[in-house]
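Could you join me in thinking about how sequence relates to backbone shape in a protein? Label the sequence line and the structure token line clearly, so we can match residues to local backbone shapes. Once you have written the record down, we can walk along the chain together.
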Amino acid sequence: MNLDQALEVANAVVSAKFGRRLSDVETAILKGAWNSQTYEQIAATSSYSISYLTRDTGPKLWKMLSQALGESVSKTNFQSALARYGRKVAADLITNGVTRTATIPPPEVLPPSTVLQAAIPSVTPPIPAVTRSIVNSVAESATQSVATSRCDWGEAADVSLFYGRTEELTVLEQWIEIDRCRLIILLGIGGVGKTTLSIKLAQQIARASYFDCVIWRSLRNAPSLESLLSDLVPFVSHQQDTEAAMEQLIYWLRNFRCLVVLDNLETILQAGNRAGQYRSDYEEYGELFRTIGETAHQSCFILTSREKPAEIATLEGIELCVRSLRLTGSLEVTQALIRAKGLFGSDAEKQQLCQLYGCSPLALKIVATCIQDLFDGDIGAFLEQDATVFSSIQVLLDQQFERCSPLEKIVMYWLAINREWSSISELAADIVPTVSKAELLEALESLSWRSLIEKQSGKYTQQAVLMEYVSNHIIQQVCHEIVAQEISILNSHALLKAQGREYAKDAQINQILKPILNHLLTALNSSARIEKQLAQLLLKLQMTSPLEPGYAGGNLFNLLRQLQVDLTSYDFSQLALWQADLRDIDLHNVNFAHSDLSKTVFTETLAIPLTVQFSPDGKFLATGDVDSELRLWLANGKNLLTCKGHTGWIWSIAFSPDGNSLASASEDQTIKLWDLRTGQFYQTLQGHTRPVWSVKFSPDGQMLASSSEDQTLKLWDVYTGSCLRTLEGHTAWVRSIAFSADGKFLASGSDDRTLKLWDVQTGDCLKTLQGHTQQIWSVAFSGGSQPLLASSSSDHTIKLWEIDTGDCLKTLQGHTNWVRTIAFSPDHQTLASGSEDQTIKLWNVQTGQCWQTLRGHKNWVRSMAFSPDGKMLASGSGDHTVKLWDINTGRCSQTLQGYTNRVWSVAFSPVPSDETEAIIASGHDDHTIRFWDIHTGECQHTLRGHTNAVCTVAFSPDGKILASGGSDQTIKFWDIRTMQCRRTLYGHSSRVWAIAFSLDGKTLASASDDHTVKLWDINTGQCRHTFQGHSSWVCSVAFSPEGIIASSGHDQTVKLWNGITGECAHTFIGHTNWVWSIAFSPDGKLLASGSGDHTIKLWDVMTGNCLQTLSGHTSRIWSVAFSRDGKTLASGSSDQTVKLWDVHTGACYCTFHEHTNLVWSIAFSHNGKLLASGSQDETIKLWDVNTGKCLKTLTADRPYERMNITSVRGLTEAQLFSLRALGAIDY
């Protein structure tokens, strides 16, 4: 709104209210005020005296405008008041369906006071005339705002009952809308109303402002900056961006006008130090706020805090774009609360009561309950007592808390620990010793009367200031108990609920466990003394209260773990270890004998889950994994069954419609049907000639469909196990199938980049759908009256197809890597997609827009499934986890943490003369590299630094450096002498599968999922060349003695590269499946390649001719290696064998059989007498090449190696089996 429009609005409202237009002097005052002139300056530029303006006309003008506009108007806020009125007119026009050109006659046709009344006769009081230009201007702005504003209120409370704060709202709207402030902070003590004001302000802005989006977030659980940015960036970017980076946020704040409100900023500020300093690990917030305040953009951040951060103190100013508003107690608000609470007294008594508590809304809300309970609502009677004890809110809370009954205090503690809305049943399960539901309900009702808790939809929580108060109470009490060697609250309350939701556990660690340890460090001066106190309490507990029900044992364990104590050989026997978190930690030689582990969570033997499915009733979750195991889980994460029978990876599972059976499809080329009551398979379907990728039951449960690498689909009779029909037509692997809801159609997606739609009855291919540019990973039908077909692909997209016509309706874009899995929600409104980019996206099926991105996995997402009620989504990932997501909040509520430690890669150190000092290096799933003594079989060193699986290791020719590469997309150089990481190379955008040193040791080549080969300078760490030419993963790379570089990959080819120009010199074609491993012969004349087609090929490097094809393995070949003399070739395979081949004849002359799972890697020793093999079975075996005898088996300690679980309580047989598989022992 400009000055002319403002004057026109002012004249219109004054005319409607008083029947006249503004006078000349009134117009002069408005013009001057608009230009920020003082009354002296206005008087100087007009013919009016300053006294006339300040004492007469000015005050009358503002009073007149206040009456006309229906709100308090002054010289400082009249601009925002007029703008707000204009938007209200426009919004009413839009709300009532009136366009700018529809039913508003021109001003000359109707009397001024009836122009808008004719358009909107229902608006009261009557809206005065506003000329067409004003209506057009504000209506256009409002229309745009209504059309584009998006809101995300997070955990914002209901503020429908809002009192006062008109002046503060006016000032803040002026700062936001007129002054365009970029950063505003609301300051004040706890309970003064900052949160409520921030929500009300945001709501008003959302309804009336021009912001594209409004998002409100609480920081009370102290999220990391990365976590906050991962929440903000997707929302403000309209789900166009998922990178949790500050520069990305600023970019979108410039492109869109966004209002971001962050509540409870004090949570990330350090207590006990100078005000405004950040807690450790939260300093990056300061940089964020400084950047927001200093950088030009069109958005606004609003913060609420009890302290002012140092950055804001530096940047703020009355004329600057960073400002602070200190919120004090409000007499208007507190008096409204007194009326609402039904208290009575004289006006003087009411004012005295309000002032006694600093006009704090929360303080008044709490004390009003006391007055009602103790003085029947009589303020005067209360004031006659010595009420000065309540002058401090802290004292007030102390007094109110002490008035609580013992059970009420217990409930208050649990609500502070849970840190989210808690149901009665959840609280009842928490409380020890147990109480009746009636007692619990009575306590909750009493707490509600005391205004100490909030209630919503049958669940309870605390206001942030109360939660902080009670949390501090818990922290102080626990610290006292630990120092004094007492046990009370330590046993009655869990400081960490290991079985709780993941986001709640993170908050409990940050807000309870860490502060306890910080307080103890101050009191005891060292971590060692803290450990000693905790250990003494453990001993006391074992001696005085063995197996007493409660949380003390679990709390002490969790505190020791958080303190990062080495728990090797610790004694936790004879204890109840409720809510102890035993995941992701080594517990070697730890004694848990005779302990109660009923509420404890463990690392599971869950290997990488390739497929997840909910049972039809939603009570169970099933998983299939790379260890050929099928598992059945309860909804709370307990493992009920582990089913074994397959000999290859389980790619797909499906529940029968009645939930009694489960079908599984495997790498071993079979489909099995399992009875879930016994855990035994009762039928094996055989007929596919290659691995089976997908299996589905028909909706009526009578038929089973499967698809395979053999390029076919098969339909099976569930009862007889016979193959009813084989569907042929695809020209490559068929990775996914899906039945339509009515069972009439079957869809299939293939590596040939097509979808096919089949008639189930006839087996005819009805349609072939084309549009994807790479392989198709997943297909899914929606239900409903207008079903759709969805598909996902390596081209990073999802497509929605119209079934009848075969037309592509929408292409959903947003993922940055392969989209491996998709699933429709039960209501058909949402499509979920999981990707190689480690994210899950939720899409609106109608609009094709991504409305949520779920983050938390640390590797690719392979499989997903919605629960039958649509409230939860399960996802399986390469990070060994299954996560359960709450669809409404987008937060991870539970993680099933698995563990396997397959050996990805092995390498012998080069020793020129003898091998007495030779060592083996190995890369593992647990992110480590291990060095082994080949004579003792002992692990000498373990190197840590990678953040994901280590897929490849290689020694430099001089043996001084070990290089490693892995799923974290990095390459590291390690100094063999110091065992320290010398350098980390960054450049690949996906996992690094293979590395190789040049013969002179000056260059390293690397092969990656990102379809590239890179050459690195060893001395500088710089990338010298990037070779592009493969159309998919590059799985292997090798140097010839002459410096020729070879690579192979998922595109079934082997390529030779010119190391100087970067050009591809030759491409060897012949394999019919991916080529995982290649190796040059020592003389450089031959190249061996091992493939998923079960064969090894020997190529002439000069001509490119295939000289021999070696057959003998019965499954995929993962590794090939030449002996030093070039006469022998070794190979490792999914058939669990290692074979030795005569290079000259091509004959296999020896097969090693002792591995129990696929063999990933093999390596010859320098003199060729030994062969090392690394396997999925988590072992390295050393073989005598001449005799074929296995000389040693090297095994890394598992997480629970030698852990004593004799006579433990509270575990299922499946859980006990899992613990034993991870090294635990029953003595």
Q: What stands out?
A: The CA atoms of residues 158 and 196 lie 9 Å apart. Residues 97-133, 138-148, 388-392 have pLDDT under 50 and may be disordered. The two ends are 82 Å apart (CA to CA).
